[in-house]
Amino acid sequence: MENHQTPNVQLVSELTEEARVTFYKKTYTHLAGAVLLFILVETLFFQIEPIVNFALSLTGGISWLLLLGAFMFVTNYAEKLAIQSNDRTMHYAGLVLYVIAEAFIFIPLIYIAMYMAGDGAFNILNQAAILTLSLFTGLSAVAFLTKKDFSFLKSILAIGFAIALGLIIAGSLFGFNLGLWFSVGMVVLASGSILYQTSNMIHKYRPNQYVAASLGLFASLMLLFWYILSILSND
What we know:
mainly alpha
């Protein structure tokens, strides 16, 4: 997610230490709220069979590409609401919309994980969540402790995600499985994205952009969770 700065507007990095800590607390509180909302919405979706069936019907070939296209369109729109609007209500609308879109696209993956694991489904989900949060915490600590500006990762991530998207499209069109190493590569990209988004939160955002900062972190966190869960589901 890009942060569109306004000239002569103070950044979080220029604030007093107390003000910076307040911004970080707001950001991570909203991130925690987004994760909780994701769990609640996902649980609700799985209680509504037509929604589950509809999501599962979109997992093959062209349908999956259309779903990914719709997901990218909706999430890009949500990001714009969260970062470009001057209306605080729109910031929250963007975050909620993003969470709902993530919950819907996760339905097939969680369904497959539950099917493959059977009685051990909860354990797999729990393991994936613990691994994701542990890696997220470690990477966040690196960004905070080093205070390094990781904005140089932007071009690397853009190239990596473009290659990944091309492989996903090719896999969907020609029916081949991208396999374990693709998921491992995506974990690496997601980890880089977490460093980049955390660095942006520290160096690039304005004091009133904690909702946008939390959305960027949430997006990277969920991408990491997706591919860790994919790896565990295919063990």
